Amino acid sequence: MKHREAFRSCRNSMIAGIAVAAYFAALCPCRAAAQTLAAAPPMGWNSWNHFHRTIDDKTVRAQADAMVSTGMRDAGYIYVNIDDTWQGERDAQGNMQANSKFPDMKDLADYVHSKGLKIGIYSSPGAKTCAGYEGSLGHEEQDAATYAKWGFDYLKYDLCGLRTELKAAPTPEAAHKMMVDAYIKMRDALHKTGRPIVYSLCQYGNDAVWRWGTDVGGNLWRTTGDINDHYARMVEIGFSQAGLARFAGPGHWNDPDMLEVGNGGMTSDEYRQHMSLWVILAAPLLAGNDLTSMTAETTAMLTNHEVIAIDQDRLGQQGDRVSAEGPLEIWEKQLADGSKAVGVFNRHATALSIPVDFKQLGFRKSVRVRDIWQAKDLGSMKDSYTVTVPPHGVVLLRVK
Ligand code: GLA
User: Fold this and answer.
1) Whole-Å CA distances, 26 to 21, 22, 30, 137, 218
2) Does residue 358 line the site of ligand 1, with CB under 6 A?
3) What CATH number labels 38-311?
4) Under 8 Å between Cβ of 247 and 211
5) Fold of 320-399
6) What is the model's pTM?
7) Ligand 1, residues 53, 158, 209: which to mutate, most atoms within 8 A of Cβ?
8) Where are the domains of the chain?
9) pLDDT for 7-58, tens place per residue?
10) 3-class SS at 20?
11) Distance in Å, CA 189 to ligand 1 centroid
């Protein structure tokens, strides 16, 4: 009897548990979908940093080809994202059409898919995009349906054009609500298509987007203004990310903007610093260079599997700053196997040495240390290890 009652009460609480879980899943289908959509920070390529307004169909196909031939795809780079300037006029029914640079979007999407890749597109919640092309204001559902019909898998939704409307709002609160509503509107429109489409919010980190980005369905959200191919700008963006770690996780990521690696404006050490900081930040890795003409060094940097593994680690824990001493900073990222990625960054113009204190990193016993960029096991260590970091460089360790 006792057993039967215990069984019943256990069964009832299981049923109640399932019902509660189902209720919350129904309340928030977007969040459930987001979990599977961007379980790890999205990886791919985006046209803007290198090609700006010159991006066209032929270039996108060539990048997709290169994504495969260079090993980028096999390293995890999957999304081929078309940024601003693809848009043409709307037809009589208001359906969005591409401009003459993109003769057949569906055919292009099919081509990219045939390479085992996915494809992304770009729009704005305003009437116009940043580059002055047609935005989605008033056509959200129609545009989402068009992207789904063409076969797109990713949308970057860039505030830009809506800023004029936001400025006219009577109060900052009203402007905030207008912006949030605009992002919710496109979230719902994407959801209605039934196609899984990664939703990338781009509004430059305004109004602490990391606090509400998940609620409006964002799988990633830009936390800063635009990056460019200069060391000072990369540093300004990258090192400003301290404190944001708790807002990121599987399905929803902080996005400090696309990579500049390989675009030519920084030294190899600077690009290594860029890449190392981005992986510790669990940042989306969207290459922004021309994949058809990469040097062997750039390819090696972008496809280093031990570096990428830090970014894509299944724990999905964004890293953060541990200490700062002027231009020297130590950042760490907890990894699923109990080890930590440790980045020792030097922003100074000459080499500097600094001890890495393993106790400060939470390790009580002796540790095993591997230098990731050198691909070298450094053996077992206790207490601390003094590294010498090249000017504008990084030493990236995996400590266990
Ligand atoms: C904004 C975005 C950039 C890029 C351009 C395109 O500046 O932040 O990433 O998409 O618009 O016009």
Assistant:
1) 9, 6, 9, 28, 18
2) no
3) 3.20.20.70
4) yes
5) Immunoglobulin-like (2.60.40)
6) 0.91
7) 158
8) 1-29, 38-311, 320-399
9) 454 444 444 444 434 433 444 444 444 457 999 999 999 999 999 999 999 9
10) helix
11) 22
